[in-house]
Amino acid sequence: MSHFTNILRYAKPYKSYAIGHVISNVFFALFGTLSFVALKPMLDVIFDKEKIVPKVKPTYTGLDKLGEYLGDFLNYEMHQFTGGDKSKALMFTIGLIVVMFLLKNLFGYLANYFLVFLRNGVIRDIRNKVYRKTIELPLSYLSDQKKGDILARVTGDVQDLQYSFLSVLELLVREPLTIIFTIIAMVYISPKLTLFVFIFIPIMGFVISRIGKSLKRKSDKVQREQGMFLSTLEETLTGLRIIKGFSAEDKFTEKFQESTSRFYRFSNKLMNRQNLASPASEFLGICMISVILWYGGNLVLSDNNNLALDGSQFLIYMGLAYNILTPAKAISRGLYNIKKGGAAAERIQEIVDTPNPLKDKPNAKTKDDFNSEIVFDNISFKYQDEYVLKNFSLTIPKGKTVALVGQSGSGKSTVANLITRFYDVNEGEILIDGDNITDLTTSSLRKQLGIVTQDAILFNDSIKNNLKLGNEHATDEDVIESLKVANAWEFVKDLEGVLDYNIGDAGGKLSGGQKQRLSIARAVLKSPPIMILDEATSALDTESERLVQVALENMMKNRTSIVIAHRLSTIQNADEIVVLSKGEIVEQGKHDALIAKKGTYHKLVEMQSIG
C-alpha cells in the first residue's frame, strides 16, 4: 500500500475535483439505496396492503428512529397527495422511484466527471515527473539502463497505473458507501436476515485474496518483458543500417519474437488470473443470495409475528442484497488492480527515487560570465574501477585554445565530460575564475559552455529550432549569421523552406558534413565564452573536414577553446597542445616544439602522415 500512498500524493493539486468526486459519490450511494427502498410503497399498493396513515405530519426525533420517521413521512405525504386513491398512490410511488434513479445517475455522472480531471491530471503529472527526473539524472545512470525499459515505464507502466491504481479512486467512496447504506437499510428491514450476509463477507474476502496473491509478481514480469522488446525495437530503429548491412535481420527478428513470446505467456497468465476475479465474486454472491432466499422465505412463511417478514419487505430485501453484489465485485476487482498496479508503481518510483549525485548544492552560486582562467587542479577520475585520468593538472587562460591529443582511451573526452559536469571528479577540483564548478549551479555553468561533439546530435525539427536550442530568443537574422560563421549558409539557403526545412530524424536528410556544420552553428548561436570541441571533424571526409575546419576556426576567434582532436592536422595552430597517455600528461607545448622533441606527439603525427 506504500506505493498506492505515493501515487495518491500526486492528487493533491486536484483536491477540488477529489472533493466534488467524493460528495457526488456520497449522494450516488444514498440515492442508489433509496431507489430500492422507494419500491416498498409501490409493492404495498400492488399487494393491497393497508397502512396506518399518520393523521399529523411526523416529526424527526433522532437517528435511532430515522427509518420509522421516513416511512411515516412517506405514507403521510402519499396520502395527502392521493387522498387514498390507490391508482394515484401507484403513480406517486412510480414517480418517486423515477426521481430517485434520476438523482442516482445524475450524481453518478458528476462523480465520473470530476474523476476524469483528477485521474488524467495525476497521470500527466506522473509522466512529467518521470520525464523530468530522467533528464536530471546523470549520464552514468542512463548508460546502465535500457532505453526501451525507460520508455516502457513512461508509457506502459503509467498507463497501467491509470487503469489499476487510479481506477480504485472511484471505489474508495462510492462502493463502500453503497454497501454501508444498503446494509443499514437491510438491518432496518430484518436484523436476523442480515447476519447471514456478514457470514459470507469474510469467506469472499479470503477467496479473493488467495486468487490475487500472485498478481503483483506476474504483472512485474509482464512490464519488464515489455521493456525488453521495446529496447530491441529502439536498437533496431537506431541501427537499422548496420542490421541490413550485415544481413542480421533474421537474428534481430528472432530476438524480438522471443521477447514478445515471453510477453504473450506472461500476459496470458496474468489476464487469466485477473479474469477469475469477477466470476468468483459473482458465484459467492449468488451463494449468499441463495441462503437469503432460503432463510428469508421461511421468515415470510413463518407464523411467528416477531420474526415474520411481509412479502413487500422480503422483495425489497432481496433487491438490496443483490445491490451489494455490484459494489462487492467492483471492490474485489479494485483489490486485484492494486496488486497489479503495485509492480508498475514500484518501477516508476524506482526512477523518481533514484538519487542524483550531481544535484546542485543548496547554496550553489550562479555564474554569469567568464573572466580569467580554467584550472584543472590535480584531478583523478574513474568511471568504474580503473582511473582514466590520474593527477591531471592544466591551466587554460581566457582567450586561449588548448588541444588535447592522444590515443583512444587516453582520457581526452573524459576531460570534456568533467568540465561540463556530466560526471564529478573523484579527486582534485576544477575551477573557473577560482570557483569550484561543484559550487556553481549546473545550468549557469553550462551556459558558459558550447559543445560540438563527434556525433552531430540533431533533432527531428526545423533547422531554425535546432539552432535555437541554446538561444531561444535569437532572431532569424541571428540564425543566418551563425550559419554563415559555421560555413553552413551555402547549403541551407538552397533548401526548401530554408530555415524552416525539417531535417528528419537525427538529421537524416543531411550529409555528415552538413550536420556537423549545423551543430557548430548551434554552438555559435549560443555564443558562450568557452567552447569544447570533442573530435568534431574525426567522422568526416576530407572535403567536409576542410569546410568544417574553417567553420571551427571562425567560431573559436576571441573564445577560450578546449579542442579534443583525433586528426592532428586540425590543431597545429593551438596555443598549447597537451599529449595524454593512459590518463596522464606526457607532453605539453606548441606544435613545433613538440615535433622537435621527437617524443609521443611526433610519433602520433608521423603515424597519421603515413596513414
TrEMBL record:
<dbReference type="GO" id="GO:0005524">
    <property type="term" value="F:ATP binding"/>
</dbReference>
<dbReference type="Pfam" id="PF00005">
    <property type="entry name" value="ABC_tran"/>
</dbReference>
<dbReference type="GO" id="GO:0005886">
    <property type="term" value="C:plasma membrane"/>
</dbReference>
<dbReference type="InterPro" id="IPR036640">
    <property type="entry name" value="ABC1_TM_sf"/>
</dbReference>
<dbReference type="InterPro" id="IPR011527">
    <property type="entry name" value="ABC1_TM_dom"/>
</dbReference>
<dbReference type="Pfam" id="PF00664">
    <property type="entry name" value="ABC_membrane"/>
</dbReference>
<keyword id="KW-0067">ATP-binding</keyword>
<keyword id="KW-0812">Transmembrane</keyword>
<dbReference type="InterPro" id="IPR039421">
    <property type="entry name" value="Type_1_exporter"/>
</dbReference>
<dbReference type="InterPro" id="IPR017871">
    <property type="entry name" value="ABC_transporter-like_CS"/>
</dbReference>
<protein>
    <submittedName>
        <fullName>ABC transporter ATP-binding protein</fullName>
    </submittedName>
</protein>
<feature type="transmembrane region" description="Helical">
    <location>
        <begin position="18"/>
        <end position="39"/>
    </location>
</feature>
<keyword id="KW-1133">Transmembrane helix</keyword>
<keyword id="KW-0472">Membrane</keyword>
<keyword id="KW-0547">Nucleotide-binding</keyword>
<feature type="transmembrane region" description="Helical">
    <location>
        <begin position="276"/>
        <end position="295"/>
    </location>
</feature>
<dbReference type="GO" id="GO:0016887">
    <property type="term" value="F:ATP hydrolysis activity"/>
</dbReference>
<dbReference type="InterPro" id="IPR003593">
    <property type="entry name" value="AAA+_ATPase"/>
</dbReference>
<dbReference type="InterPro" id="IPR027417">
    <property type="entry name" value="P-loop_NTPase"/>
</dbReference>
<feature type="domain" description="ABC transporter">
    <location>
        <begin position="374"/>
        <end position="607"/>
    </location>
</feature>
<feature type="transmembrane region" description="Helical">
    <location>
        <begin position="89"/>
        <end position="111"/>
    </location>
</feature>
<dbReference type="GO" id="GO:0015421">
    <property type="term" value="F:ABC-type oligopeptide transporter activity"/>
</dbReference>
<dbReference type="InterPro" id="IPR003439">
    <property type="entry name" value="ABC_transporter-like_ATP-bd"/>
</dbReference>
<feature type="domain" description="ABC transmembrane type-1">
    <location>
        <begin position="22"/>
        <end position="340"/>
    </location>
</feature>
<feature type="transmembrane region" description="Helical">
    <location>
        <begin position="179"/>
        <end position="208"/>
    </location>
</feature>
